[in-house]
Design a protein that fits this description.
Its EC number is 5.1.1.7. One of its GO terms (cellular component) is cytosol. The chain is of the alpha+beta class. It has two domains: about 150 residues, Diaminopimelate Epimerase, Chain A, domain 1 (Roll); about 130 residues, Diaminopimelate Epimerase, Chain A, domain 1, CATH 3.10.310.10. The chain is built from five helices and 18 strands. The protein has an 18-stranded mixed beta sheet that branches. Strand 3 and strand 4 form a beta hairpin. The structure holds ligand LBFN2T5F. Ligand LBFN2T5F binds next to helix 2 and helix 5.
């Protein structure tokens, strides 16, 4: 026997990387099924994943436990833009300007970076104009931590015909620097790398090209199994790989995916991801409750 229940969601995006946010207090028996159905851009609401967020507001700063369920039904240990959206969600609920986010990749500090108001926005919109920063930890090139099957760090090596540098920024990323990200068929070059035997858990695949002082970004995401408008861990991966290859100096690196502009700031080797987050709209989706008891 089964019954339907309405589940409230809030839709957020960070530079176009979009998520349904569901309060983890809401009982959703089949999170995988809900994500597969509702992330579909034709049959469902459409999103790059569902963030189930459990707020613990008795702490100061408040804590949030973040679980990202992706459209393929799997969970990811970390999501940079998801964490920025989770940060905004918790800040809206608590009024706090900083929160701690518990992810499978570790606890991350998120905080509001106030807008200087120079875009002429009125007071009411000021909060939405503020950017959200998340401290992302230290990117690692250690093969075992990525994981990638190699004895030494994979730096500018060919995997499935693409010259990549491989780094973990909470999740695995392969980064290829190319002349022009738009001149490459991302899907065609990324899929073989995404599924290469070198990566026991698979990998996300990024293309980057130099633009001005920063980089343009295109990312093929594991779990979405397609290109997304932005990827935060991918932006950090591009910045970390660029520093390692001597393509960037300075502590602040701008990375621009199709959905907007991100900034990656290094303090030593520790990276912070900064960018806009928007609360788009709210709605209801249906979930199915199954019961084995049939009177
Ligand atoms: N969009 C995310 C990354 C989400 C996880 C990734 N698809 C994976 O499975 O590793 C981001 O902003 O970092």
């Amino acid at each position: 026997m089964s019954a339907f229940a309405d589940v409230h969601f809030e839709k957020y995006h960070g530079t176009g990387n979009d998520f349904l946010v569901i309060d983890a207090e809401t009982y959703v028996p089949d999170r995988r099924g809900l994500a597969a159905r509702e992330c579909d851009r034709e049959a469902g609401v459409g999103a790059d994943g569902i963030l189930f967020l459990a707020l613990e507001d008795r702490y100061n700063p408040p804590r949030v436990i973040m679980t990202l369920v992706q459209p393929d039904g799997g969970t990811a240990p970390m999501c940079g833009n998801g964490a920025r959206c989770a940060g905004r969600w918790a800040m809206e609920r608590t009024g706090s300007d900083e929160v701690m986010i518990d992810t499978q990749a570790g606890t991350r500090h998120a905080y509001r970076v106030e807008s200087d108001g120079s875009n002429g926005s009125g007071e009411e919109d000021q909060d939405q104009d503020d950017r959200i920063a998340v401290e992302m930890g230290e990117p690692t090139f250690d093969p075992k931590s990525i994981p990638v099957l190699a004895d030494d760090p994979v730096v500018e090596e060919s995997i499935e015909g693409l010259e990549v540098t491989v780094v973990n920024t909470g999740v695995p990323h392969a980064v290829a620097f190319v002349e022009d990200v738009d001149a490459v068929n991302l899907e065609a070059v990324a899929k073989p790398v995404r599924h290469a035997e070198d990566f026991p858990l698979g990998t996300n695949v990024n293309l980057a090209s130099v633009e001005g002082d920063g980089f343009r970004q295109r990312t093929f995401e594991r779990g979405v199994e397609g290109e997304t408008d932005a990827c935060g861990t991918g932006a950090v991966a591009i910045a970390a790989a660029a520093r390692r290859l001597g393509l960037a100096d300075g502590d602040s690196i701008s990375v621009s995916p199709p959905g907007g502009d991100l900034e990656v700031v290094f303090d030593g080797d520790t990276a912070t991801l900064i960018g806009p987050v928007e609360h788009e709209f709210d709605g209801e989706v249906q979930t199915t409750h199954f019961s084995s008891f049939d009177p």
